[in-house]
Amino acid sequence: MVAIDVPEINYTEYSNRQLVAVPLAVLVLALAIIGGWYLVTGAPANLGLEFTGGVELRIADDGEGNMEERIETAFDQEPDSIRSIPADDVFVVTFRAAEDDPDGLANDLEDQSEAAGFRLDSLDQVSPSFAADTAQTALFGIGLAFLGMSVLVFALFRTFVPSVAVVASAFSDLIIPIAAMNLLGIEMTLGTVAALLMIIGYSVDSDILLNNSVLRRTGDFYESVSRAMRTGVTMTLTSTAAMIVMAIVASIFGIDLLRDIGIILAIGLSADMMNTYLMNVTLLRWYKFKGVKR
Amino acid sequence: MLEPIKKNWRILLLIVVVVAASLALFAPQFAPATAPGEDTSEAQQGLTNLQYGLDLAGGTRIRAPLLGYTATEVDFDEDGPDDVARAVADELDGVSANDVSANIDERAVEVTDQSVDEAQFRAAMDASGYEYGGIRSGVTQETRDTAERIIQEKINQAGLSGGSVRQVQSITGEYFILIEVPGEERSDIIELLEERGTVQIDIAYPTENGTAIEEEVLVQDDFEDIGTASQGSEGSGPYVPVTVRNTAPDGETSPAHSFQSAVVERGFPSAYSSDGVRCDFEENEDDVSVPCLLLTVDGETVNSFGMDSGLAASMDSGSWAETGNFRLTTGEFSEAQTISINLRAGALPAQLDISGQGTSSEISASQGENFRFYSMITGVLAIFAVAGMVFLRYRDPRVALPMIVTALAEVYALLGFAALLNYPIELAVIAGFIAVVGTGVDDLVIIADEVMSEGDVNSRKVFDSRFRRAFWVIGAAAATTIIAMSPLMVLSLGDLSGFAIFTILGVLIGVLITRPAYGDILRRLLTVR
Asked: What single-letter DSSP state applies at residue A121?
């Protein structure tokens, strides 16, 4: 049987600058992607139906002819996307918001799909103004959660540098998955917002563990780090495994919400491992040794 | 006897919680409440007492605001609300008094007619001469409550079990009405909401061959204004004030006049010449002794009234039609409320704006069922993944097995909670469960590593001190998760409040019950005796 052995990194071989360079570079790259996305598309991420408004239909595949062709010809308006979910014999078709009358659009689409002989499994209609409101609420929620977490971390450690290390790595843990979502074409939905909030909760775990081990326990710095790392990496790997399995299974079954949460958390947790054991450790080392060269 | 209990109370507590969860999940006493005309087995979905939300059971969800404008902080100048409403309505072209209402408790005046825009309403408020603070879009609390009640009533009347109506507030302060009806199609629900119930007033009067009925003496359109139910003053019971329209196109009799003559013709003034005469339609439906007014909704008589002698006299003299006011008096206040709702039913006090700013969604029952099964598989596989990782890492079943069992107990306890609270399980809640397993195992890993570090555990004291150290980290981590999740609980972000609630509940159950229990189990297994 293969065993998981958490590798021991010999931190002494690398300077602070070297260690911190990797996570910082990734963070800058992620920020650049999000910024670029904003400049090109007008939004920092691919916004899903819930944040743009529109109509999503799930049409059952009755096995007669080429569904995709039939769907394309059935509707007056060009669908924005058609996605097939083989396990569920369903096609998910989305239409972007019609500014004027989204409910009318929903009714039209319902009629048209009936005329084409489709069986509708579900229909979702979100109006653009409601969607804008939801987007604002979601952004506010993430902001509030992040702020609350930061305050709590400062209250727990009551020292500046270690607290900043936790908050900074949590920030990077949030930004990297958003950039990855853009690149992978995952849309920002309510599910992904929930996943981002989960990242705030999850990622701080390993950071707190590390800080606790280094600051509150006696012993050599490197010994403390490797002890925290053994536990922390196990934790993160376990959660990541659960999330990857969830993402794979849910995407086979076409349960978007669970798939999105799974993917985002898997990426976020991986980013967290890098941030915690490269960036956070370095900040702590610098704090402990007050920049003593080694 | 007491010593073993004291020593193992954490494990015992976990067992108690698991037993309690089983009770909540399977005992018939905790079965979901049944809708009228439904027996227990119908209300129960599947083997357990768990309720499933729309996305796992199929159904329709509609979320939309009520349209209208409200002037706030209105100075009523000691005028009655009806006078204020009328004065404002008079300033608006083509708007009936029904579409303007004033509420003295909220100090607000609202207009619910679709043709009026904000500027027109502002102008009308200015012209009416009442001082006011500002104009906002939306309607008053009272109107929202009424709309909520009417929609609930409609859903109940249509016999749709498990339907719910709520008000939710968005971050911008706007109120939405949230309607959820399991097992129904979206178009049917929208139709139901838009459908106007036919409400009419008939007259039942005595003849030689028993009761005869003159139908449609008053129909819904004949009312100019339908007041809200009022708690009557001394002597008179609770009532609904109504005003019958006294205007008509040239050459036609106004509804007030034709109602008046119908009342006189059927002999109300002579029958109700003195107080104390009561309508006996309820007792002798087929052979009434005096004429009665019948309130009929969708062809069904829901209430019968007699007439106050003063009112009958003024109808006799012909003066009543000028004002057209009368009161539908009832025995109970709740009855007056029902009548007021019935008279308005179909006509929501304001229009529900589903197309403009609302959302609606529909999930078919078969998809709901599929999702229920698929998400269960997803959850089980995710747990297997966790179990696999834990075994790979520790290769010691004494550590790994209890870890997985405690994590499962946590989810089981959560399911019990959901059954106890009758909280509908949705996809988002299942995601919350999976998140709980993730954080749960994280914390158990922290406990296990901490306890096993620095050599064998050779005494209870050593174990306890290491366990406490581990618990500091766990507590801190739990606190951050709770803080990160709490905004979702209160913000109106659709399904996500369920996700947040169950993640937080899971973390709490974990920190307070299951993780300490795991510590105890581990101590028993690891302590070198």
From this structure: E
Predicted TM-score (pTM) of the model is 0.68
- Is there a single domain that holds both residue B85 and residue B128? yes
Distance between the two ends of chain A, CA-based, in angstroms? 40
Residues 159-178 of A with CB under 8 A from B: none
pLDDT digits (tens, 9 = 90+) for A219-272: 788 888 888 888 888 888 888 888 898 889 888 888 877 888 888 999 999 999
Query: Domains of chain A by range and CATH?
Result: 11-47+130-289 (1.20.1640.10), 54-126 (3.30.70)
Q: Is A270 helix (H, G, I), strand (E, B) or coil?
A: helix
Which tens digits make up the pLDDT trace of B341-352?
666 655 677 777
Distance between CA atoms of A107 and A125, rounded to whole angstroms?
10
User: Pairing mode, if any, of strands A81-85 and A90-96?
Assistant: antiparallel
Query: With a cut of 70, which residues of chain B have pLDDT below it?
Result: 1-2, 29-47, 96-98, 157-162, 170-172, 195-198, 232-236, 297-298, 330-331, 334-335, 337-339, 341-347, 355-357, 454-458, 492, 494-495, 527-529
Q: What is the DSSP letter of B274?
A: S
Alpha helices in A116-189 (DSSP H): 128-157, 160-184
Interface of A with B in 187-246 (CB under 8 A): 190-191, 193-194, 197-198, 200-202, 204-205, 208-209, 212, 216-217, 227, 230-231, 234-235, 237-239, 241-246
Note whether B99 and B89 are within 8 A (CB).
yes
Q: Hey, is B5 helix, strand or coil?
A: helix
Angle at A193 between CA B407 and CA A199, to 5 degrees: 50
Mode of pairing for the β-strands spanning B359-363 and B239-244: unpaired
Dihedral pair phi/psi, residue B467, rounded to 5°:
-60, -40
Q: Which of residues 263-282 of A touch B (CB under 8 A)?
A: 265
Residue type, B245: R
In total, chain B counts a number of residues equal to 529
ipTM > 0.85?
no
- DSSP bridge pairs for B137: B69
Supply angle C-alpha B147, B148, B149, rounded to 5. 90
* Domain count for chain B: 3
Nearest chain B Cα distance for residue A20, angstroms: 25
Q: Could you tell me the residue range of the domain that residue B383 belongs to?
A: 2-57+364-526
Residues B513 and B368 in one domain: yes
Out of B309, B344, B379, pick the residue that ends a domain.
B344
Task: Give all strands of the β-sheet with B199-207 in edge-to-edge order.
Answer: B210-219, B199-207, B292-297, B300-305
**pLDDT tens sequence across B362-416:** 777 777 788 888 888 888 888 888 888 888 888 888 888 888 888 888 888 888 8
